[in-house]
Amino acid sequence: MVKIIDCPRDAMQGLKTYIPAATKANYINKLLRCGFDTIDFGSFVSPKAIPQMRDTAEVLSLLDLSQSDTELIAIVANKRGAVDAAAFPEIEYLGYPFSVSETFQLRNTNATLAESLERVKLIQEIAVNADKTLLLYISMGFGNPYGDEWNAEIVAKATKELSKIGIKIIQLSDTIGVATPESISYLFGNLLPLYPDIEIGAHLHTTPRTWREKVEAAYDAGCRRFDGAIRGYGGCPMAKDDLTGNMPTEHLVYFFDEIGAETGVDLSEFGKVYQAAEAVFPKN
């Protein structure tokens, strides 16, 4: 079974034009009918930092979860966000971006790597006490544009530290789209056997021509958990390439259907939300 996680939060968060809460909720309700394993639907972070996500609690109140087995992820960046998110019974997962780049961690969460690790311990405690699961994104997991040291051993060391805290889900994140099939194969091929009790997934950014080789490399190396965003919306502004965006969910859905891997996604319902997406997302 392959788990596909659609990430409307990641697709929307960088947009300057505000998408009303009702529009967000209507779109996510369509996603809930598709059969995705999980939806990354919103975040409890500073509205000054991410103004697009200031209405996450309101969006949550408008979601119809009654006919869906899909779980929800909310992103948090500190204790306050974790406490806020953990108060909602509808949310199963708290997601925290843990970078192996000191520069990016400071920019993204205003914390050093050492401080971020302490935050993870605190948020893990909050999650466990609230019967939630903490999901960690190892951002800049395949390289960074800042000149910070990066190699596979650094990622492996971070994974080891997170495993000691009790983290059970880690997404290796290709934040700026620099992963190659070789680096993807190496990381998943080496980490998955070492940590059989951790679900290690792929959050890949890609250009239109390189998506398939990246997905194939991760899948062939044993990865069975993939993040995507419909039409590839969103991505990281540090990528410095307008063509580099989130992994298009439609590529994941149809690729795994093509090779006969079960995902639980209803192709008919997915087709409807795919068509609806264009009207939801502004062009800036």
Question: What features would you describe in this structure?
Answer:
By secondary structure, the protein is of the alpha/beta class. The chain has one domain: Alpha-Beta Barrel (TIM Barrel). Helix content is about 40%, strand content about 20%. Strands 8-1-2-3-4-5-6-7-9 form a nine-stranded mixed beta sheet. Strand 3 (about 70-75), helix 4 (about 80-85) and strand 4 (about 95-100) form a beta-alpha-beta unit. Helix 2 runs antiparallel to helix 11 (about 265-280), helix 4 runs parallel beside helix 6 (about 115-130) and helix 8 (about 180-195) runs parallel beside helix 9. The protein is globular.
Number of strands: 9
Strand content: 15-25%
Query: How far is the N terminus from the C terminus?
Result: 36 Å
List the helices and strands in order: EHHEHEHEHHEHEHEHEEHH
Number of helices: 11
Strands of the widest sheet, in order across it, are 8-1-2-3-4-5-6-7-9
What count of structural domains?
1
User: How is the CATH topology named?
Assistant: TIM Barrel
CATH second-level architecture = Alpha-Beta Barrel
Poorly predicted regions are: none
Describe this structure in a few short sentences.
With about 280 residues, the protein is an alpha/beta fold.
Properties at a glance:
single chain, 284 residues, alpha/beta, TIM Barrel, nine-stranded mixed β-sheet
Reconstruct the topology from this structure:
Elements: E1 3-6, H1 8-12, H2 21-32, E2 38-44, H3 56-61, E3 71-76, H4 79-86, E4 93-99, H5 102-109, H6 113-129, E5 133-139, H7 152-165, E6 169-174, H8 181-194, E7 199-206, H9 211-220, E8 225-228, E9 245-246, H10 249-258, H11 267-280
Parallel strand pairs: 1-2, 1-8, 2-3, 3-4, 4-5, 5-6, 6-7
Antiparallel strand pairs: 7-9
Helix pairs in contact: 2-11, 4-6, 7-8, 8-9
